[in-house]
Specification:
A hairpin with a 2-residue loop joins β1 and β2. This protein has one domain: Helix Hairpins (Orthogonal Bundle). The chain contains three helices and two strands, in the order ααββα. α1 runs antiparallel to α3. It has a two-stranded antiparallel sheet. 10% of the residues are buried. By secondary structure, it is α+β, with helices and mostly antiparallel strands.
Length: 204
């Protein structure tokens, strides 16, 4: 239930001040929402780009990856991700993860006793692992930005659809009441003056 408003000049000034503040604040809030939406689109596109690059890289390697089934070379555990370095980015007041680096450990192997394609395999595994790490961080950025956009959209809607319309309505109500009060006062004053003049005339 909406709070009852006071119908006086002080309340009118307070409502006008609030309306002015809302109208000053809303454009910057809406601009931030638009900027966050743009960053969200970038994060989504970035994630899709990394996933596409992974698919492309694996497709390019399909021909010689088939050789793995026809060899005694053990490639399981040949390359391991030992760590992924991340940093933080403050973007429009939103803290986002930022990819820095991926660390690997590579099992030692004989350069002479292993097929030529093992080097290519190691390179591909590293490239795919890096792309997957970047895609994962882009997914995190996307999720965080989606939540940020949702929250700021709620705030924009609060100003546009509730606070500003309600304050405008309050101002109209107060102005109507004050205008009616002023007219009533004028009528009462005229009536009182007329009554006074009538008494004076009767007593003459």
């Amino acid at each position: 239930m909406a709070a009852k408003i006071a119908l006086n000049k002080t309340a009118l000034k307070q409502s006008r001040d609030k309306l002015g503040m809302y109208k000053r604040y809303l454009p910057s809030l809406d601009l931030k929402r638009q900027q966050l939406m743009l960053e969200l689109q970038k994060a989504r596109a970035e994630k899709e780009s990394y996933m596409q690059k992974i698919d492309n890289r694996l497709t390019q390697a399909e021909d010689w990856i088939g050789l793995l089934a026809n060899t005694d070379i053990q490639v399981n555990g040949l390359v391991k991700v030992t760590g992924i370095d991340e940093s933080e980015q403050n973007l429009l007041g939103v803290t986002l993860p930022l990819y820095l680096d991926t660390h690997f450990s590579v099992e030692s192997y004989s350069m002479l006793a292993t097929p030529y394609w093992v080097d290519a395999l190691i390179k591909t595994l590293k490239e795919v692992a890096i792309l997957r790490a970047k895609a994962a961080i882009s997914a995190k950025r996307t999720a965080i930005l989606e939540e940020a956009v949702r929250k700021i959209t709620q705030r924009v809607n609060l100003f546009e659809k509730r606070l500003i319309p309600e304050t405008n309505s309050d101002i109209r109500k107060i102005k109507i009441f004050l205008d009616d009060s002023d007219r009533a006062s004028v009528i009462r004053a005229k009536f009182a003056k007329k009554k006074t003049l009538s008494r004076i005339g009767s007593g003459a």
